[in-house]
Amino acid sequence: MSDLKLRIATRKSALALAQTTMAADAIVAANSVIGNAADSNNARDSLTYELVSMTTEGDRRLDKSLASFGGKGVFIKELEIALLEGRADIAIHSLKDMPAEVLPQFKLAAVLKREDPRDAFLSRGGSAGIRFMDLPAGARVGTGSIRRVVQLKALRPDLEYVPIRGNIQTRIGKLAELDGVVLAAAGLKRMGLADQVTEYFSTEQMLPASGQGILAIETLNDATVQESRVTGRADLAQILARVNDVATYCIASAEMAYLKALNAGCQFPVASFAEFVCEDGIENRGTCGALEENANRIAQTLKIRGIYWDEKSEKLLRAEVAGNVDLNSEDCVQQSKNLGIELACAIQKQL
């Protein structure tokens, strides 16, 4: 047995470091068990990791909206350069920070099981604070997302929505001057700040950002892969495959395909949310409970909902499609993408 060290590119923010460490620990855990008959090795190599942290353009330019200077790519460009230059073997991102399609030199190698995808509302007093629908007319609510703003306005057009950016603690600190702020539940929970939440928006009230709550692992594409301390000694793809959650990968594929089909990024008020539903229609945070109980089940129903704000008509367009995705098939990712594209077509027919 030999020792392997995985070099992982990450942003320097507290949330990014926490999420990357979580993903790295999951990779190590998935590769630390003794191989079985289905494994090509009797025992897996001992895997460790080191973080290669850096500050991205999106972290530096907090005085402007993302749409004004490049969109989602500003959070991942420096990490991708580290991959190309051989300074890192993989990069960990929040999927919602990634463009709808990665550049051809890279690939989305794996994703972890989705955390809580919902948006959360925080007001002074935490869980005992004033709930969103109980805010007085004219109250000021902070969010840096136009996706959130159009949906919040649909719920409460009588409130003022204030653009804010910064890390989680900075945004929570805005409660000193605002009546409330809206943040992703996943980040709050990963940072141990769930006790700050006043309430969670249901996905019917507010559709999450595409990819919200999903940690993505990016690597070089096979055609551009370079020698590294891991790829030269072990199969990096196999290492990452052991931690990949297939159902979440299909969900991610559907949601990102929707964005790609609409040619939409963070500068567009657009969102999609996919979930596997049981036969009785009840969802279970992304995967049907029966899936884990019966790994041989042939197909699952994947439902995906989408929104798009049409500035011309000043209407929030909504659509929903569903279809079977065979999680035991090599075609499951393409089946999921097809549903995302179908959803985009349903939205486009309304334009």
Question: Could you explain how this protein is built, in words?
Answer:
It is an enzyme of class 2 (transferase). Pfam families: Porphobil_deam. Belongs to the HMBS family. Monomer. Its cofactor is dipyrromethane. This protein has 351 residues and is an alpha/beta fold. The protein has three domains: 1-113 and 214-244, Periplasmic binding protein-like II (D-Maltodextrin-Binding Protein, domain 2, 3-Layer(aba) Sandwich), CATH 3.40.190.10; 119-200, Periplasmic binding protein-like II (D-Maltodextrin-Binding Protein, domain 2), CATH 3.40.190.10; 245-351, Double Stranded RNA Binding Domain. The protein is 27% helix and 23% strand. The protein has helices at 14-30, 57-60, 77-84, 146-155, 168-173, 185-190, 236-241, 246-262, 289-293, 332-348; strands spanning 3-11, 46-54, 90-94, 106-111, 119-122, 140-142, 160-162, 180-184, 199-200, 215-220, 270-277, 300-310, 315-325. Strands 2-1-3-10-4 form a five-stranded mixed sheet. A five-stranded mixed sheet has the order 7-6-8-5-9. A three-stranded antiparallel sheet has the order 11-12-13. Mean pLDDT is 86; it is low at 60-70 and 284-296.
Produce the secondary structure layout.
Blueprint: E1 3-11, H1 14-30, E2 46-54, H2 57-60, H3 77-84, E3 90-94, E4 106-111, E5 119-122, E6 140-142, H4 146-155, E7 160-162, H5 168-173, E8 180-184, H6 185-190, E9 199-200, E10 215-220, H7 236-241, H8 246-262, E11 270-277, H9 289-293, E12 300-310, E13 315-325, H10 332-348
Parallel strand pairs: 1-2, 1-3, 6-7, 6-8
Antiparallel strand pairs: 3-10, 4-10, 5-8, 5-9, 11-12, 12-13
Helix pairs in contact: 8-10
